[in-house]
Amino acid sequence: MLVRLAALATAAALALGGCSPAESDPTEEQSSEQQGQSGGQSGDQSGEQSGEETETIEAPEPGVCRVLEPADIAEASNDTEPVDCAEPHNAETFLVASFGDELADAEYDDERQGQVVYDRCTKGFMKFTGANESLALRSVLSWAWWRPTQEEWDAGARWFRCDVVGGTDQSAELVELPETAKGVLLGIPGDRWMSCVQGDSVSGVPPVPCTEPHDWRAVTTIVVGQEKDKYPGDRLVEVLSRDYCSDSVGAWMNYPVDYEFAYTWFHKAEWEAGNRRSICWAGTKE
Protein backbone atom coordinates (compact mmCIF):
# COMPACT_ATOMS: atom_id res chain seq x y z
CA MET A 1 0.00 0.00 0.00
CA LEU A 2 1.20 3.50 -0.82
CA VAL A 3 2.97 5.18 2.07
CA ARG A 4 0.76 8.08 3.14
CA LEU A 5 2.85 11.21 3.58
CA ALA A 6 -0.13 13.37 4.68
CA ALA A 7 1.39 12.93 8.10
CA LEU A 8 4.97 11.81 8.20
CA ALA A 9 5.65 8.40 9.68
CA THR A 10 8.32 8.77 12.34
CA ALA A 11 10.73 6.58 14.24
CA ALA A 12 8.72 7.35 17.34
CA ALA A 13 5.56 6.26 15.57
CA LEU A 14 4.09 9.74 15.73
CA ALA A 15 2.42 11.27 12.71
CA LEU A 16 3.08 14.98 12.44
CA GLY A 17 2.85 16.97 9.25
CA GLY A 18 6.14 17.74 7.53
CA CYS A 19 7.46 20.42 5.26
CA SER A 20 9.43 20.70 2.04
CA PRO A 21 9.92 23.69 -0.25
CA ALA A 22 8.39 23.05 -3.66
CA GLU A 23 6.71 25.14 -6.30
CA SER A 24 3.18 24.39 -7.48
CA ASP A 25 1.97 25.01 -10.99
CA PRO A 26 -1.05 27.32 -10.61
CA THR A 27 -2.44 26.05 -13.89
CA GLU A 28 -2.80 22.55 -12.49
CA GLU A 29 -4.22 23.13 -9.06
CA GLN A 30 -6.89 24.93 -7.10
CA SER A 31 -6.44 26.39 -3.67
CA SER A 32 -9.16 27.45 -1.30
CA GLU A 33 -8.67 30.92 -2.77
CA GLN A 34 -9.54 29.62 -6.23
CA GLN A 35 -13.01 28.09 -6.01
CA GLY A 36 -14.40 25.93 -8.74
CA GLN A 37 -13.94 22.68 -10.58
CA SER A 38 -10.41 21.45 -11.17
CA GLY A 39 -9.17 21.83 -14.71
CA GLY A 40 -6.04 19.76 -14.18
CA GLN A 41 -7.44 16.25 -14.48
CA SER A 42 -5.94 13.86 -16.93
CA GLY A 43 -8.50 11.85 -18.82
CA ASP A 44 -11.45 12.77 -16.60
CA GLN A 45 -14.07 10.83 -18.52
CA SER A 46 -15.60 7.52 -17.54
CA GLY A 47 -17.29 4.89 -19.69
CA GLU A 48 -16.29 2.18 -22.13
CA GLN A 49 -14.87 3.02 -25.56
CA SER A 50 -18.22 2.57 -27.25
CA GLY A 51 -21.14 4.63 -28.34
CA GLU A 52 -22.31 5.05 -24.74
CA GLU A 53 -22.54 8.53 -23.28
CA THR A 54 -19.60 9.21 -20.98
CA GLU A 55 -19.92 10.57 -17.45
CA THR A 56 -17.66 13.39 -16.25
CA ILE A 57 -15.74 12.62 -13.07
CA GLU A 58 -15.63 15.85 -11.14
CA ALA A 59 -12.86 16.67 -8.70
CA PRO A 60 -13.84 17.93 -5.23
CA GLU A 61 -13.77 21.66 -4.56
CA PRO A 62 -11.35 23.51 -2.26
CA GLY A 63 -12.61 25.72 0.51
CA VAL A 64 -15.17 23.24 1.84
CA CYS A 65 -15.32 21.72 5.30
CA ARG A 66 -16.13 18.26 6.62
CA VAL A 67 -16.54 16.32 9.84
CA LEU A 68 -14.16 13.35 9.67
CA GLU A 69 -13.27 10.44 11.91
CA PRO A 70 -9.58 9.77 12.64
CA ALA A 71 -9.80 6.51 10.68
CA ASP A 72 -10.76 8.47 7.56
CA ILE A 73 -7.22 9.86 7.39
CA ALA A 74 -5.79 6.42 6.65
CA GLU A 75 -8.19 5.73 3.77
CA ALA A 76 -7.14 6.14 0.14
CA SER A 77 -10.32 7.98 -0.84
CA ASN A 78 -13.01 9.89 1.01
CA ASP A 79 -16.52 10.96 0.01
CA THR A 80 -17.72 12.48 3.29
CA GLU A 81 -20.36 15.10 2.59
CA PRO A 82 -19.25 18.72 3.11
CA VAL A 83 -20.76 20.85 5.87
CA ASP A 84 -21.13 24.61 6.22
CA CYS A 85 -17.79 25.92 7.49
CA ALA A 86 -19.69 28.04 10.00
CA GLU A 87 -20.81 24.77 11.62
CA PRO A 88 -18.52 22.54 13.74
CA HIS A 89 -15.97 20.72 11.58
CA ASN A 90 -12.48 19.23 11.83
CA ALA A 91 -11.26 19.23 8.22
CA GLU A 92 -10.97 21.94 5.57
CA THR A 93 -9.90 21.37 1.97
CA PHE A 94 -7.17 23.83 1.04
CA LEU A 95 -5.93 22.31 -2.21
CA VAL A 96 -7.22 20.20 -5.09
CA ALA A 97 -4.69 19.45 -7.82
CA SER A 98 -3.88 17.04 -10.63
CA PHE A 99 -1.18 14.39 -10.79
CA GLY A 100 -0.63 15.56 -14.35
CA ASP A 101 0.41 13.74 -17.50
CA GLU A 102 3.32 11.97 -15.81
CA LEU A 103 0.93 9.71 -13.91
CA ALA A 104 -1.74 9.50 -16.60
CA ASP A 105 -1.01 5.79 -17.14
CA ALA A 106 0.04 5.01 -13.56
CA GLU A 107 -1.42 2.23 -11.45
CA TYR A 108 -3.65 3.15 -8.52
CA ASP A 109 -0.92 2.36 -5.96
CA ASP A 110 1.99 3.94 -7.87
CA GLU A 111 4.53 5.14 -5.28
CA ARG A 112 5.24 8.30 -7.27
CA GLN A 113 1.95 9.71 -6.01
CA GLY A 114 3.46 10.16 -2.56
CA GLN A 115 6.25 12.44 -3.82
CA VAL A 116 3.85 14.59 -5.85
CA VAL A 117 1.41 14.93 -2.98
CA TYR A 118 4.08 15.63 -0.38
CA ASP A 119 5.57 18.46 -2.43
CA ARG A 120 2.26 20.08 -3.32
CA CYS A 121 0.35 19.62 -0.08
CA THR A 122 3.19 20.53 2.27
CA LYS A 123 3.81 23.80 0.47
CA GLY A 124 0.08 24.43 0.26
CA PHE A 125 -0.43 23.68 3.96
CA MET A 126 2.29 26.11 5.01
CA LYS A 127 1.01 28.85 2.73
CA PHE A 128 -2.60 28.36 3.84
CA THR A 129 -2.00 28.15 7.61
CA GLY A 130 0.97 30.52 7.78
CA ALA A 131 3.29 27.89 9.28
CA ASN A 132 7.05 27.84 8.71
CA GLU A 133 8.98 24.58 8.34
CA SER A 134 9.54 24.11 12.06
CA LEU A 135 6.03 25.05 13.10
CA ALA A 136 4.50 22.73 10.53
CA LEU A 137 6.18 19.82 12.31
CA ARG A 138 5.29 21.00 15.82
CA SER A 139 1.62 21.81 15.33
CA VAL A 140 -1.19 19.43 16.17
CA LEU A 141 -2.62 20.57 12.83
CA SER A 142 -1.46 18.55 9.90
CA TRP A 143 -2.74 17.64 6.47
CA ALA A 144 -4.24 14.54 4.98
CA TRP A 145 -4.82 13.64 1.35
CA TRP A 146 -7.15 11.53 -0.70
CA ARG A 147 -7.45 10.48 -4.31
CA PRO A 148 -10.28 9.11 -6.45
CA THR A 149 -11.67 5.65 -5.81
CA GLN A 150 -10.17 2.71 -7.68
CA GLU A 151 -13.09 2.79 -10.10
CA GLU A 152 -12.72 6.52 -10.76
CA TRP A 153 -8.96 6.13 -11.20
CA ASP A 154 -9.50 3.35 -13.74
CA ALA A 155 -11.89 5.67 -15.57
CA GLY A 156 -9.23 8.36 -15.82
CA ALA A 157 -9.58 10.62 -12.76
CA ARG A 158 -6.16 11.91 -11.62
CA TRP A 159 -6.90 14.52 -8.94
CA PHE A 160 -5.91 14.58 -5.29
CA ARG A 161 -7.36 16.54 -2.37
CA CYS A 162 -5.49 17.97 0.62
CA ASP A 163 -7.25 18.92 3.88
CA VAL A 164 -6.11 20.63 7.05
CA VAL A 165 -6.92 18.21 9.87
CA GLY A 166 -6.49 18.46 13.62
CA GLY A 167 -4.75 15.21 14.43
CA THR A 168 -3.80 11.86 12.93
CA ASP A 169 -5.44 8.53 12.20
CA GLN A 170 -4.28 7.44 15.68
CA SER A 171 -5.92 10.34 17.52
CA ALA A 172 -8.86 9.66 19.81
CA GLU A 173 -10.65 12.47 18.01
CA LEU A 174 -9.76 15.28 15.66
CA VAL A 175 -9.47 18.83 16.93
CA GLU A 176 -12.29 21.16 15.91
CA LEU A 177 -11.14 23.87 13.51
CA PRO A 178 -12.13 27.54 13.34
CA GLU A 179 -14.48 28.66 10.56
CA THR A 180 -11.39 28.76 8.37
CA ALA A 181 -7.89 27.54 9.19
CA LYS A 182 -6.36 30.12 6.85
CA GLY A 183 -3.59 31.95 8.74
CA VAL A 184 -4.22 30.06 11.97
CA LEU A 185 -0.49 29.37 12.50
CA LEU A 186 0.77 32.86 11.73
CA GLY A 187 2.88 34.54 14.40
CA ILE A 188 2.90 32.70 17.73
CA PRO A 189 0.01 30.22 17.67
CA GLY A 190 -1.93 29.44 20.82
CA ASP A 191 -1.42 26.18 22.71
CA ARG A 192 -4.61 24.74 21.23
CA TRP A 193 -2.73 24.36 17.94
CA MET A 194 0.59 23.05 19.32
CA SER A 195 1.60 19.40 19.75
CA CYS A 196 2.06 17.81 23.14
CA VAL A 197 2.11 14.20 24.32
CA GLN A 198 0.93 12.62 27.54
CA GLY A 199 2.89 9.59 28.68
CA ASP A 200 6.28 8.33 29.79
CA SER A 201 7.72 8.84 26.31
CA VAL A 202 6.75 10.31 22.95
CA SER A 203 6.95 6.94 21.23
CA GLY A 204 3.72 5.46 19.93
CA VAL A 205 1.50 8.16 21.41
CA PRO A 206 -0.57 10.47 19.18
CA PRO A 207 -0.12 14.19 19.86
CA VAL A 208 -2.77 16.24 21.61
CA PRO A 209 -3.23 20.02 21.82
CA CYS A 210 -1.02 21.54 24.51
CA THR A 211 -4.15 22.86 26.23
CA GLU A 212 -4.73 19.27 27.37
CA PRO A 213 -2.79 17.56 30.18
CA HIS A 214 0.63 16.52 28.89
CA ASP A 215 4.15 15.47 29.83
CA TRP A 216 5.99 16.46 26.64
CA ARG A 217 5.89 19.48 24.33
CA ALA A 218 7.33 19.73 20.82
CA VAL A 219 9.46 22.84 21.29
CA THR A 220 11.95 23.00 18.43
CA THR A 221 13.09 21.23 15.28
CA ILE A 222 16.65 20.73 14.11
CA VAL A 223 18.04 20.34 10.60
CA VAL A 224 19.90 17.06 10.00
CA GLY A 225 20.75 17.51 6.32
CA GLN A 226 20.61 19.79 3.31
CA GLU A 227 18.23 19.54 0.39
CA LYS A 228 20.67 17.84 -2.00
CA ASP A 229 22.24 15.51 0.56
CA LYS A 230 21.80 11.75 0.20
CA TYR A 231 20.23 9.91 3.12
CA PRO A 232 23.10 9.30 5.59
CA GLY A 233 21.49 6.27 7.23
CA ASP A 234 19.27 5.68 10.23
CA ARG A 235 22.05 5.57 12.80
CA LEU A 236 23.60 8.90 11.85
CA VAL A 237 20.23 10.68 11.67
CA GLU A 238 19.29 9.32 15.09
CA VAL A 239 22.61 10.37 16.68
CA LEU A 240 22.44 13.84 15.15
CA SER A 241 18.85 14.20 16.35
CA ARG A 242 19.77 13.13 19.87
CA ASP A 243 22.78 15.43 20.17
CA TYR A 244 21.21 18.48 18.54
CA CYS A 245 17.94 18.09 20.43
CA SER A 246 19.78 17.84 23.75
CA ASP A 247 21.31 21.25 23.10
CA SER A 248 18.17 22.73 21.57
CA VAL A 249 15.85 21.70 24.39
CA GLY A 250 18.38 22.79 27.01
CA ALA A 251 18.45 26.25 25.46
CA TRP A 252 14.65 26.36 25.22
CA MET A 253 14.42 25.54 28.94
CA ASN A 254 17.06 28.17 29.77
CA TYR A 255 19.80 25.65 30.61
CA PRO A 256 18.52 24.03 33.81
CA VAL A 257 20.78 21.64 35.71
CA ASP A 258 18.49 18.70 35.01
CA TYR A 259 15.95 18.32 32.25
CA GLU A 260 14.32 15.65 30.12
CA PHE A 261 14.26 15.69 26.36
CA ALA A 262 13.17 13.38 23.58
CA TYR A 263 13.37 13.44 19.81
CA THR A 264 11.48 12.20 16.81
CA TRP A 265 13.57 11.41 13.76
CA PHE A 266 12.58 10.35 10.26
CA HIS A 267 13.63 7.55 7.96
CA LYS A 268 14.73 7.26 4.35
CA ALA A 269 11.23 7.42 2.87
CA GLU A 270 10.56 10.80 4.47
CA TRP A 271 14.06 12.02 3.55
CA GLU A 272 13.46 11.16 -0.09
CA ALA A 273 10.12 12.96 0.09
CA GLY A 274 11.95 16.11 1.18
CA ASN A 275 12.03 16.23 4.99
CA ARG A 276 15.34 17.22 6.58
CA ARG A 277 14.24 17.96 10.15
CA SER A 278 13.80 16.12 13.43
CA ILE A 279 11.47 17.17 16.25
CA CYS A 280 12.78 18.00 19.72
CA TRP A 281 10.54 17.45 22.76
CA ALA A 282 10.89 18.93 26.22
CA GLY A 283 9.71 17.07 29.29
CA THR A 284 7.31 19.64 30.70
CA LYS A 285 3.72 19.95 31.86
CA GLU A 286 3.64 23.61 30.89
Automatic annotation (TrEMBL):
Q: Does the keyword Transport apply?
A: no
What residue spans carry the region label Disordered? Answer: 18-63
Superkingdom, taxonomy of origin: Bacteria
Q: What's in the keyword line of the UniProt record?
A: Signal
Which first-to-last residue range defines the signal peptide?
A: 1-24
Please list the residue ranges annotated as the Septum formation-related domain. 45-140, 144-280
What residue ranges carry the coiled-coil annotation? none
The name of this protein is Septum formation-related domain-containing protein
